[in-house]
Design a protein that fits this description.
homodimer; 5 strands; DNA-binding
Chain lengths: 154, 154
Amino acid sequence: MTDKADGQTMISDEEKRLESQLCFAVYSAAHAFNRAYKPILDRVGLTYPQYLVMLVLWEKGCLSVKTIGEKLDLDSGTLSPLLKRLEQAGLIGRARDPKDERQVIISLTEKGAGMKCQVGVIMDAIGQATGCDMAEMANLRDQLQKLKVNLAAE
Amino acid sequence: MTDKADGQTMISDEEKRLESQLCFAVYSAAHAFNRAYKPILDRVGLTYPQYLVMLVLWEKGCLSVKTIGEKLDLDSGTLSPLLKRLEQAGLIGRARDPKDERQVIISLTEKGAGMKCQVGVIMDAIGQATGCDMAEMANLRDQLQKLKVNLAAE
DNA sequence: AAAATACATATTGTGCACGATTAAATCGTG
DNA sequence: CACGATTTAATCGTGCACAATATGTATTTT
């Protein structure tokens, strides 16, 4: 970028092209992940966003709706019906926190916790599909996190 | 990865963690882009996917629905209603190709073409928000494209 | 203690994404 | 020419994402 006299920043046409290519690449890669996971997740009856919720629950055990929303950048309008379906599928339980009844605590059922084992199989399949080694994956993860933080700071 | 005697491939726990972190990072960065663009696109009355469609039209002038779908990895079930809204907004025109009436050709109206100028303003705002220089953007774009191709090849 | 405020979640409505199905047009081959 | 296969869009149903709104609960203030 080149600074103009008035302190504003000029953006070249190449930069504009690059930026549109980047935002499309991110959009497109997210779709590609979704599609790659779909046939495998279908077998265990999960959608991709549901799988992401299960991932954080397998990690932490039980969490409030709000905390899940913070980890996944989703609001309650998205999570409420999604969690309702996971509850109907018998994978999670929902209960008001006795300490603070505004909060709903999401916990894994035995069935939901047991499903974690099946995930190893899922990841084996996808991990190979990425065609990335560990260093590449870590590098990409870090760059994307940095990008996300910058965009969120706005 | 370490090869087992039976020819299958073992994936370590660290790799599984990395992979889930990567697919979440992609998912999350896509949301971040979407949110960053939203307030600006609201002013010109476009959603983010609509903006991506307009991007390829500004690039190419006019395209068939199928071609747009290939560029954006979207099928007609997604594009048809989206294009219908762009048509109602007076930004594009839709007409059957006289050469092959199976195809619908999408073209920019004067209003739609004129909107391209406003996009420079949008990109100025977002480009700075990414906090990436050109080399970083290009690198990230290439890595994501490679990832996408690998996942699609499956 | 009562009112005001802030917070947590649910509800509703719109738009996107995708699979499955349908319908119409084209093409290939006999 | 005719028949079947393929291509291209549109339509329908389900689920995600989000804004706006509503409801109810806890905290703070008076």
